[in-house]
Amino acid sequence: MGENSRFWVAFSILLLAFALFTIMSVWMTIQAHAEPLPSPPIVHITDDPGGNVGVYYQKYAALDAAGAEVHFHGMCASACGIVLFQRFTHIRACADDGAIFGFHKPFQERDGKVVRTKSAVRDTRKLWAMWLRALPDPLRKYLQRVRVPSAAEGDEQNVMLILPGSLLLPKCPMTIAAQ
C-alpha cells in the first residue's frame, strides 16, 4: 500500500502544479492583452502672465482631479502661481531651468484701473493672508519675510517679486525642446 499512496501524493502534487500553471498562464494572457490604463495628461505652461484667480483655480482643480503633470517653462506670474497651493495635491508640477514665478498681492480692478480705497487695501490684505495659509511652509515663511508688491497699496500693476522655479519645484525630467 505504501507504493500506491506515494503515487497518489506525487500525482496530486503534479495535478496541483498543472492547475496553478494553467491559472497563471490565463492571468498572464489576460494582462498582456488588457488595455493599458490611460496616462495622466502632461500640461506645459510657458510664459503665463496670470489673470483671473477664479479661472485659474478652476483650471488647476481640474488638472488636480486628473492627476496631471504640469511642466513650467519661462514665466508663471500672478494667478498662474496658485498651482503651488497645498490644496492641489494630485498635480505633479516641475520647473525647467529657465522657469520663474512672479508674485504680487491680489488687487481689484474697476474700469481697467486698480482700486486703491481703504476697503480695497483691507480686502487685499485678507485675501493675501488666505493665500499665504494655502502655500507650503517654506514659501509661506519666505513671502511673509519679504516685501511683496501690492498694486492696491500703491505699487505699479506690473511689479512682481520674482523667484526661480528651481527653488519652488523639482526639475522637469525633460524640457519642451527635448520633445
- Global morphology: rod-shaped
Q: Return the structural class.
A: alpha/beta
Query: Uncertain runs with pLDDT below 50, 5 residues or more?
Result: none
The helical percent reads: 40-55%
Question: What portion of residues belong to β-strands?
Answer: 15-25%
* N- to C-terminal distance: 73 Å
Q: Count of helical segments? A: 5
SSE succession: HEHEEEEEHHEH
**What is the mean pLDDT?**
87
Main sheet: strands, sense, barrel: 5 strands, mixed
In total, how many domains does the architecture comprise?
2
**CA gyration radius, whole angstroms:** 28 Å
Would you report the number of β strands?
Answer: 7
Features:
alpha/beta; five-stranded mixed β-sheet; 42% helix; 5 helices; rod-shaped; 179 residues
Could you please describe the fold and organization of this structure?
The chain is an alpha/beta fold and 179 residues long. The protein folds into 2 domains: 1-34; 42-178, no CATH class. It has 5 helices and 7 strands. The strands form 2 sheets. Strands 1, 2, 3, 4 and 7 form a 5-stranded mixed β-sheet that branches. The protein has a two-stranded antiparallel sheet with strand order 5-6. The chain is rod-shaped, with a radius of gyration of 28 Å. The mean pLDDT is 87.
